[in-house]
Amino acid sequence: MSASPWLVVPAAGQGRRMGTDRPKQYLTLDARPVMAHTLTRLHAAFPGARLCLCLDPDDAWFDPDWVPFADWRRVAGGAERADSVANALGAIAGEARDDDLVLVHDVARPCVDVEDLRRLLQVLADDAVGGLLAAPVADTMKRDDGAGRVALTEPRAGLWHALTPQGFRYGLLNQALRQATASGVTVTDEASAVEALGHAPRLVPGRRDNLKITHPEDLALAGMILAAQASVHSETTPEGVAER
Question: Is 0.90 surpassed by the pTM of this model?
Answer without folding.
Answer: yes
